[in-house]
Design a protein that fits this description.
With 258 residues, the protein is of the alpha/beta class. 37% of the residues lie in helices and 24% in strands.
């Protein structure tokens, strides 16, 4: 039985899992992050995902987790220990990444941001900017020498949409999508146009400033749940890589496997 690596990225809105055999990504899943789940419920979810693909969870011999929801970490750790006999590696202080961090306080940097930076530099070199479209939208800068230089954090597109609905009396909640027309003739279309093109302007405006500072050779990589949606009309995003975080987790696990 060939051992497999389970990688898990726990975000505020979604949790993304990936299953690797050596360097091959065999399967991936995106779930809603549920802070109320118990240890047994977590194990049940993982086992169910494997069953749907006809896989045996007992083949998982290692696991690595990046998490920005610290209250969930003990639950996840116990689920792996109790049900699968695995001690998961959590990305954090003391874990080898191979990337110098130039943040004033390196411990403040979200694990997912470092994971993305490691994978981005390994795949594309530097300098580069990684735009992660999650609950928050982050812009992370990696230098030509492979150093994590810092970045920018903005409210995510989903937060903007929810704020517009919850803070107004008459505006409806809408699906986040590319509108059929820029100038809409109804309320739903008007909101979608404002959200989509307004956020696209924010993204491209910040990237333009970053490229001016970093140099024209800077590559722009998009990842995260809404990456494909925004990338299609961006003037600057050169690559859309939805599985970048999973690949970064695999690379960091390799650096620490000994």
């Amino acid at each position: 039985m060939v051992g497999m690596l389970l990688v898990m990225d726990v975000g505020n809105t979604n949790t993304v899992l990936g299953l690797y055999r050596n360097e091959e990504l065999l399967a991936s899943w995106r779930l809603t992050t549920n802070r109320a789940q118990t240890t047994d419920e977590y194990a049940l979810v993982v086992s169910g995902l494997f069953s749907l693909r006809g896989m045996d969870p007992r083949q998982v011999t290692d696991a690595i987790v990046s998490s920005v929801v610290p209250p969930m970490d003990p639950t996840i750790r116990e689920a792996f220990q109790r049900h699968y006999g695995i001690e998961p590696l959590f990305v954090g202080p003391g874990v080898k990444t191979g990337m110098p961090i130039q943040y004033d306080s390196p411990a403040e940097v979200g694990a997912d941001r470092i994971v993305n930076a490691v994978a981005g530099y390994a795949r594309y070199g530097g300098p580069l900017v990684i735009v992660d479209f999650g609950t928050a939208t982050t812009f992370d800068v990696v230098t030509a020498r492979g150093e994590y230089a810092g970045g920018i954090i903005c409210p995510g597109l989903g937060i903007a949409a929810e704020a517009l609905f919850s803070r107004t009396a008459k505006l409806p909640r809408v699906e986040i999508r590319r509108p059929a027309r820029l100038i809409a003739a109804n309320t739903v279309g008007s909101i979608q146009s404002g959200l989509y093109y307004g956020y696209l302007g924010l993204v491209d405006g910040l990237i333009e400033r970053l490229v001016k500072e970093l140099g024209a050779e800077t590559q722009i990589i998009a990842t995260g749940g809404l990456a494909e949606l925004i990338s299609r009309d961006s003037r600057y995003i050169s690559h859309c890589d939805p599985m970048l975080t999973l690949e970064g987790l695999r690379l960091i696990w390799q650096k620490n496997r000994g």
